[in-house]
Amino acid sequence: MPPPSSLNAAKVARRWLTWLRQNPAALIGGALLTAFAVLALFGPLLTPFGIDQRVGPVYGAPSPAHPLGLDDSGVDMLSLLIAGTRISMLVGFAASMVSVLVGGFVGVTAGYVGGWVDTALMRITDYFIVIPALPLMIVVATVWAPSVVHMVLIIALLLWTSTARLIRAQVLALKERVSVRRARAIGAGHARIVLRHIVPDIVGLLVATTVLAVSVAVFFEAALSFLGLGDPATVSWGRLIQIAFERTAISSGAWWAIIPPGLCIALVVLGSSLLGTAIQHAANPKAGIAHVSSRTFRIRPVPEASRD
Amino acid sequence: MTESSPLLEASDLNVWFDLPDGGELHALRGVDLRVGSREKLGIVGESGCGKSTLLMTLMGLLPPSASASGSIRISGQEVLTGGERAFRIHRWKDIAVVFQGAMNALNPVMRIGRQITEVLELHDVATGPAAEARARDLVTLVGLPDDILRRYNHELSGGMRQRVSLAMALACEPQVLLADEPTTALDVMVAAQVLGVIDRLTRELDLALVLVTHDLPLVTRTCDRIQVMYAGKVVETGTPADVYHRSEHPYTRLLFAATADVHSGREELVSIAGSPPRLDEPVTGCAFLPRCPMAREECMTEAPQLLQVASGHAAACRFAGQKVRMS
Amino acid sequence: MAKGSPMRRKLLYGLVSVALVLAGSACTNSKADVRSGEGSVLRIGDTGSTISTLNPFLASNIFENAVFRYVYPYLVQYDTSGSIEGDFATSYQSTEGGRVWTFHTHPGATWSDHKPLTAEDAAWTFNAILANKDGATARFGSYLAHVQSVTTKGPNELVVTYDKPVATALANLSVVPILPRAVWGPYLSGDAGKLSGFTNDAPLVSGGSFILTSEKKDAYALFERNPSFYGPKPKLSGFGFQFFGSADAMISAIQQGQIDVAYDVPATAVSTLKKDSSLHLLTNKGTDEDTLIFNSSPGQTEHPELLDPKVREAFHLAVDRQKMVDVVTLGMGTPATSIIPLSLQNWADPQIGAEGFHPDKASQILDQLGYTRGADGVRVANGHPMSYDLLEPTGLTGHDRVVDLLRSDLAKIGVEIHVRVVDGDAFGHALVTPSPKAPSYDLAVDDWISRWDPDFMLSLNTCGQRGNYNEAAYCNSHYDALYNQQSTSLDLAQRKQVVDEAQEALNRDKPWMPLFVNPNLIAVRKNVHGFSGSPFVVDTTSRHQIDDSWLQ
Amino acid sequence: MAAVVAATPRAGTGSALRGSVGYLTRRLAVALVTVVVAVSANFLLFRAVPGDAASMVKVPGLSAAERMQIRADFGLDQPVGSQYLHYLGQLAHGNLGISFENRKPVTANLWQAVANTMPMVLLGTVFALVAGMATGLIAAWRRGTVLDAGGLGAALAFYAMPAQWLGLMLILLAAGHLPSGGISDVFLTDADWWARTADHLRHLLLPALTFGLASYGQYAVIIRTSMLETLGEDYVLTARAKGFSNWSVVRRHALPNAMLPITTLIAMSLGLLVSGAILIETVFSWPGVGLAVYDAVKARDYPMLEGAFLLLTVSVILCNLLADLVYLRLDPRIRSA
Question: Bridge-partner residues for B66, per DSSP?
Answer without folding.
Answer: B17
